[in-house]
């Protein structure tokens, strides 16, 4: 019985202030395109991909969880050797102008494409929207609007260098605090990451840390940590020969049944099914090469 190549999947969702587009594509040599004026996350890692934006051509290698930010030109991809799992976010010009203020015309803050960047805020927000695409996670219009405003403020300040007035009642973590906390999470995904421990890393009380973290990252600390554990679990399931139990242990889950349930809620399928589907992509690509 021969393997049948799975059909590429994707969806596009309209939210208040932005549009999100998710795609899962097989390895391909032909060109695919990411539109201009978007920020997103490649949840799959890639090696030696051909990248073209405007007149600039290059090769790129980046890990899963890397940020892809378009400039004023689309990004054209080709010679992609691995399956692609990516979420693109397109904020509206109206929201950019509204948040930017000062009579700005809603200009995009990034002139040239950024491929393979590190940005835990964007990764977290993209992860929330990705779950709505792949696992039908519910995101209300109010929550989506809040995420859109948070994302645009982040883009304008961190990528565009704009100085925006603080949002009243929303104490945020500094850039240095975000780095300290997210580095701790990345280093100890298989350990005990309690609220007390995360708060102590940046010398805040658990109460104030939880409020500041959500205002900065768009979701509570426990949800963000769980999402990063599931990102790592998907990568281990699809790129290693580890058993499901070994993957669960590697990302901090002692209860295998609980791990399977959480994995399904983030990936839209259980770990065995998810591994089998990605395996079909890889075997079909190898057969064509």
TrEMBL record:
Matches recorded under Gene3D superfamilies: Homeodomain-like
Keywords from the UniProt entry: DNA-binding, Transcription, Transcription regulation
SMART domains: HTH_ARAC
Pfam families for the chain: HTH_18
Domain of life: Bacteria
Coiled coil (UniProt feature): none
Keyword DNA-binding annotated: yes
Domain HTH araC/xylS-type, residue spans: 179-277
GO molecular function, one term: DNA-binding transcription factor activity
Name of the featured protein: AraC family transcriptional regulator
């Amino acid at each position: 019985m021969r393997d049948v190549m799975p059909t590429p999947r994707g969806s596009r969702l309209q939210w208040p202030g932005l549009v999100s587009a998710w795609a899962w594509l097989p390895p391909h040599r032909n060109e695919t395109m990411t539109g201009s004026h978007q920020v997103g996350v490649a949840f799959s890692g890639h090696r030696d991909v051909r990248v073209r934006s405007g007149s600039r051509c290059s090769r790129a290698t980046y890990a899963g969880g890397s940020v892809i930010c378009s400039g004023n030109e689309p990004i054209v991809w080709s010679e992609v050797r691995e399956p692609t799992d990516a979420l693109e976010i397109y904020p509206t010009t109206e929201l950019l102008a509204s948040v930017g203020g000062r009579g700005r015309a809603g200009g995009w803050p990034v002139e040239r494409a950024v491929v393979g960047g590190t940005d835990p805020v964007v990764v977290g927000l993209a992860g929330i929207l990705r779950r709505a695409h792949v696992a039908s996670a519910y995101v209300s219009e109010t929550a989506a609007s809040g995420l859109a405003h948070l994302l645009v403020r982040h883009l304008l300040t961190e990528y565009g260098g704009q100085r925006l007035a603080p949002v009243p009642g929303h104490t945020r973590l500094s850039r240095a605090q975000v780095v300290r906390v997210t580095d701790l999470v990345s280093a100890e995904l298989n350990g005990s990451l309690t609220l007390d421990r995360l708060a102590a890393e940046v010398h805040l009380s658990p109460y104030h840390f939880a409020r500041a973290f959500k205002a900065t990252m768009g979701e509570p600390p426990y949800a963000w940590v769980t999402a990063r554990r599931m990102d790592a679990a998907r990568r281990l399931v699809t790129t290693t020969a580890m058993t499901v139990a070994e993957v669960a242990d590697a990302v901090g889950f002692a209860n295998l049944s609980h791990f399977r349930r959480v994995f399904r809620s983030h990936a839209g399928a259980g770990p065995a099914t998810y591994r089998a589907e990605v395996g079909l992509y890889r075997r079909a690509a190898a057969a064509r090469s």
